[in-house]
Amino acid sequence: MHIIRSEADIRRGLDALAAADARLAPVIAACDGTVPLRLQPAGYAGIAHIVVSQMVSRASAHAIWGRMVSALGEVSADTYLAADPTVIAGFGLSRAKETTLRRIAAAVADAALDLDAVPKLPAGEAMAQLTSVKGIGPWTAEIYLMFCGGHPDIFPVGDVALRAAAGDLFFKGERPDEKVTRAVATAWAPWRSVAARLLWADYARRRQREALPVT
Q1: In this predicted model, what pLDDT tens digit does every residue of 152-180 receive, in sequence order?
Q2: Residue 12 has what pLDDT?
Q3: Is residue 8 very low, low, confident or very high in pLDDT (cuts 50, 70, 90)?
Q4: How far apart are CA 1 and CA 163, in angstroms?
Q5: Burial of 95 by CB count in 10 Å (0-12 exposed, 13-18 middle, 19+ buried)?
Q6: Which of 40, 88, 174, 193 is deepest in the core (most CB within 10 A)?
Q7: Cα–Cα distance measured from residue 189 to residue 20, given in angstroms and rounded to the nearest whole number
Q8: Cα–Cα distance, 38 to 201 (Å, whole number)
Q9: Model confidence, pTM
Q10: pLDDT tens by residue, 42-52
Q11: Three-class SS of residue 55?
């Protein structure tokens, strides 16, 4: 398994995808130079940022994260668990997100979850380990593995923009359901994370708007 760490890794994945599925070659040509890496730090800070950013505006997520960094210094499992509850209450997190961040921190501190090692596992095993922590759903796990861990073979079929992109390319504009999208993406293993980046980039090019779930 080739962990994605650089633009060269994206290029390698695109070359493999073009060879594996001729339908992708014109998409790659149209998006050449605009398939971003978007790699973020791994570890507790990486997954915490994903949790914080879910279902809120970018401005709100930025403000909450800024308060966390200001209060904790380094955002880590240890600093989060050591923080006074009144300090955490001032971050502006929902109760569900605060609980999830605490559970993840506890799992990391207890060595029940190794956030640096899990992206090196096969996709199914990596997903199972992450989602075993209550509060980490499939989307959170997939985005962490792709954009923090650099896992090469993740395809988040629950993402609406990703399915819309697949619909534009392969289903005459009709957005496929998750089952159909998953079946289509099977042909792109072991580079499904690069295929997802490509489809997001194509969606952004066609619609002239941002399509990636994290920045």
Answers
A1: 999 999 999 899 999 999 998 899 999 99
A2: 96
A3: very high
A4: 25
A5: exposed
A6: 193
A7: 9
A8: 12
A9: 0.91
A10: 999 999 999 99
A11: coil
- Give the integer Cα–Cα distance in Å for 181 and 183: 5
Residue 32: Cβ within 10 Å count: 11
């708007």: which residue's tokens? 209
Q: Record the tokens describing residue 76, joined without a space.
A: 């880590």
Degrees (nearest 5) of the Cα angle 88, 94, 95? Answer: 80
Task: Give whole-number Cα distances, 90 to 83, 102, 104, 166, in Å.
Answer: 11, 15, 19, 41
- Mapped onto helix, strand or coil, the DSSP state of residue 137 is coil
Tokens for 6? 């650089």
Q: What is the mean pLDDT of residues 198-206?
A: 92
Is residue 212 pLDDT above 80, yes or no?
no
**Angle at 133 (CA atoms; ends 127, 135), nearest 5 degrees:** 100
